[in-house]
């Protein structure tokens, strides 16, 4: 069984496709059980129901709410179900690597703090030599634990540089439309903006439209607004390789989903598996994508989803 951010979510569907394909390759079966939409309560219920139904032997979870899912996850584990989590853990600390509940098979870990640190480093590099470098930030959704954990590492790193000023920040969600709106509002109030740091590939794409709507340009030229993204899909990767964006972190649902199944099958065969695996170690790409990444990873576009 796979459960993720919702059956209407593109990333969750990419994870599900990888889980199902990898399971079938080894003669096992898997299904995307839900929830239908982004609903932590419904996801917890899926686990509690699985614990009592006896229908599943193993579960891969793209965790919506790391804290609220704990009790149902414990029930599933006590019922003999093996669990591997993808991206975010089960437990109160969304940044933790080591398991926070007993009996969890493994965790394919997204380094949320590392994402912010990488974005900050890129912005600092872009702003080097700029007397007054104005930055706008389009966060993901700061009410979510995994996005809230990104805020202080990014802002603290930028605050160490006197030439950098964060002139606007708002939640840009994970859609092109929200990214466009947030970026447009920021540019309206700050027409001399130098850099956008966006929380997703989709919102960064939206920022492109806002920049063009304002009669400005984006890229890596002297007068261009620089874009720093996150969770790059094929579109974002191509923009980086074409020098349209500075950099982004990389999204790899295919590698994550397949690795989760592999860990479960190894565990069920009696093999010892690591307590956690860092997602950036799975496919040779690493945490970030830069214009020169294709030099070391020629198939980077094929690895992106």
Structure characterization notes:
It is a single chain. With 305 residues, the protein is an alpha/beta fold. The protein folds into 2 domains: 2-104 and 252-281, Rossmann fold (3-Layer(aba) Sandwich), CATH 3.40.50; 113-249, Rossmann fold. Helix content is 42%, strand content 16%. It has 11 helices and 12 strands. The strands form 3 sheets. A 6-stranded parallel β-sheet has the order 2-1-3-4-5-11, with helices on both faces. It has a 4-stranded parallel β-sheet with strand order 7-6-8-9, with helices on both faces. Helix 1 links the parallel strand 1 (2-3) and strand 2 (32-34). The radius of gyration is 20 Å and the shape is elongated. The two termini are 22 Å apart. The mean pLDDT is 97.
What is the CATH superfamily of the largest domain?
Answer: Response regulator
Which CATH-level-2 architecture of the largest domain?
3-Layer(aba) Sandwich
CATH topology of the largest domain: Rossmann fold
Main sheet overview: 6 strands, parallel
Beta-strand share of residues:
15-25%
How many DSSP-defined strands? 12
Identify the CATH class of the largest domain.
Answer: Alpha Beta
Shape: elongated
What is the terminal separation in angstroms? 22 Å
Percent of residues in helices comes to: 40-55%
- Quaternary organisation of the protein chains: single chain
Number of helices: 11
| Overall domain count | 2
- Poorly predicted spans: none
Report the C-alpha radius of gyration, rounded. Answer: 20 Å
Series of H and E elements? EHEHEHEEHEHEHEHEHEHEEHH
Adjacency order of strands in the biggest sheet: 2-1-3-4-5-11
Averaged pLDDT: 97
**Structural class label:** alpha/beta
């Amino acid at each position: 069984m796979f459960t993720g951010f919702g059956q209407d979510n593109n990333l969750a569907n990419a994870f599900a496709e990888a889980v199902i394909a990898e399971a079938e390759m080894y003669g096992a079966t898997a299904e995307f059980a839900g929830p239908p939409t982004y609903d932590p309560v419904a996801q917890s219920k899926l686990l509690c129901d699985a614990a009592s139904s006896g229908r599943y032997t193993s579960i891969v979870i793209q965790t919506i709410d790391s804290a609220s899912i704990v009790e149902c996850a414990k029930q599933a584990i006590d019922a003999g179900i093996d669990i591997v989590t993808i991206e975010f853990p089960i437990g109160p600390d969304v940044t933790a690597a080591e398991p926070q509940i007993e009996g969890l098979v493994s965790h394919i870990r997204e380094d949320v703090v590392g994402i912010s640190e990488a974005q900050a480093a890129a912005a600092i590099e872009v702003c080097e030599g700029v007397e007054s470098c104005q930055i706008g930030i389009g966060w993901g959704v700061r009410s979510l634990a995994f996005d809230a954990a990104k805020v202080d590492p990014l802002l603290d790193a930028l605050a160490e540089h006197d030439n950098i000023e964060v002139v606007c920040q708002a939640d840009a969600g994970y859609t092109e439309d929200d990214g466009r709106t947030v970026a447009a509002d920021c540019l309206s109030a700050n027409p001399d903006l130098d850099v956008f740091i966006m929380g997703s590939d989709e919102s960064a794409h939206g920022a492109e439209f806002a920049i063009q709507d304002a009669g400005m340009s984006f890229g890596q030229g002297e007068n261009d607004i620089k874009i720093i993204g996150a969770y790059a899909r094929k579109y974002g990767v191509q923009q980086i390789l074409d020098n349209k964006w500075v950099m982004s972190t990389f999204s790899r649902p295919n590698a994550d989903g397949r690795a989760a199944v592999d860990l479960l099958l190894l565990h069920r065969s009696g093999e010892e598996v690591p307590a956690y695996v860092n997602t950036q170690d799975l496919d040779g790409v690493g945490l970030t994508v830069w214009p020169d990444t294709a030099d070391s990873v020629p198939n980077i576009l094929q690895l992106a989803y």
